[in-house]
Every structure is written in C-alpha cells, then in structure tokens.
Specification:
With about 230 residues, the protein is an alpha+beta fold. It is built from seven helices and ten strands.
Length: about 230
C-alpha cells in the first residue's frame, strides 16, 4: 500500500501575529474585515478532512474553497483566532501573497495516474524545502507527471514536466495578467538532477534579480542564453 505523506505541520506563532509583516504573506483581508487563510493541503485523508471540518465549523468559518494551486482556502477567519484554530487542526498555513515561493502544484504522477511517467509526489516533497523562501518576486512551481501537463508547468516560474526519460524543465513562465510560455531550459533530466537544478535556478535568481522582478523578466533582462550558462 502506498503511503501518501500529508503536508500538515503546526503553525508558527510569528506567522500568525497579524500585526507582524510576516503574517501579511499568510492571509488575504476580506471586505468584512475577516481574513482568508490558505492551508497547505494538496494531499490529505478522510480522517484529516473530517477533523479540519469539525474545527472550522466550531470557529464559524463561512466558506472553504480549493485554489488552482491545489490549496485549501479558508474564508471568514477571525485574525485573533487563527493561531488557536490552526493548533486545534494541527495544520500549517501556506503563503498566500508576497515575494516568496508561493506554492508547489503537482499532479498524482505515476503513484496514482495511469498516464504518469514520473513520481511527482516525491518530487514535490523534495522541493517543499523552498516553500516560503523570500525572493525578489513571487515564484510558483508546478510539477506534471506527463506531457498532458495538468498542472500547467509551462506557465509557471519553474515547471517540471515528466517524460519517460526524466523531466523537461521550463523557466520563466507565468499566467495571470501577463501570460507567457516559459523557456525550455533542459530535457531528459533525472529526478535527482532536477531537484539540484531547481535549487540552482532559485539561488541564481535570488542573488541577481532586482527587487520585484519575476523570474521571466529577470531572464529576459540578462538573456536566456546567459541564464542558461549560469545554471546548467
């Protein structure tokens, strides 16, 4: 039986202080003065969902939705009760806004999907270490297990698309207001080398990009070939 790791950890007090700058990355203020917070819950179990639902009902949460990045958005949260609520659920808040690594979106990969060619869940676990890292601009990562690209890796800052020979790595893509297809940085990359390459991309971007500059804009500013030489 395959064990699917659940990404729930206890909330940190410093992130839950809504007067603290760090908290601004963790919540989105609503029109009525309440907050929407994001739980990192891409993979869970019926038991965990039941526990979460019971706690949210206790705290009078008005709405739950799932974001396009596969995260659970809790709407209508009293900022004074966030820490207490999260501790009862035993969950971690995810970064909702800010110039940080925002999310790691992934499909089931070959763990569950008949089309999957790579173990995307394992890769997502490995890349989880970058979650919340402060950067010059926001950065989103997507991992797809095959060329169907259900997680849209070609339009993320860093995208990994699984093939029978490893991963194709995209960089500089984005959706939203300024959609763009990312550059193909490398192909037939092993899972081990893909993890290392993602780390090199993030480190180079962090060290050299201007404040507020997204990865794609940074690549354009120095030229793709120069960027490629620096990270490969």
């Amino acid at each position: 039986m395959i064990f699917l790791k659940i990404y729930f950890r206890t909330c940190s007090k410093i992130l839950l202080n809504h007067t603290n700058e760090s908290y601004k990355n963790m919540a989105i203020k609503q029109r009525d003065g309440s907050y929407a917070v994001v739980l990192d819950a891409a993979i869970t179990t019926p038991q965990e969902l039941k526990k979460i639902a019971e706690v949210l009902e206790k705290y009078g949460v008005s709405l739950i939705k799932f974001s396009e990045s596969q995260r659970m958005v809790i709407v209508g949260v009293d900022p004074e009760k966030v820490e207490e609520m999260c501790n009862e659920m035993g969950v971690k808040l995810a970064n909702a806004v800010g110039r940080v690594v925002r999310s790691i979106k992934f499909c089931p990969g070959n763990t569950l999907c008949v089309m999957g060619l790579q173990n995307t869940i394992e890769m997502a676990q490995k890349l989880k270490k970058f979650d919340g890292m402060e950067l010059p601009g926001k950065l989103k990562i997507a991992i797809a297990g095959c060329s169907n690209s259900c997680t849209e890796p070609a339009v993320r800052d860093i995208g990994l698309m699984g093939t029978k020979d490893g991963y194709t790595i995209f960089v500089g893509g984005s959706a939203g207001r300024k959609p763009r297809i990312g550059y193909v940085l490398a192909e037939k990359v092993s899972p081990e080398d893909a993890e290392k390459l993602v780390e090199k991309i993030i480190e180079f971007y962090k060290a050299n990009a201007k404040n507020g500059q997204r990865l794609g804009d940074f690549i354009d500013s120095i030229g793709f070939e120069e960027f490629k030489k620096a990270v490969l």
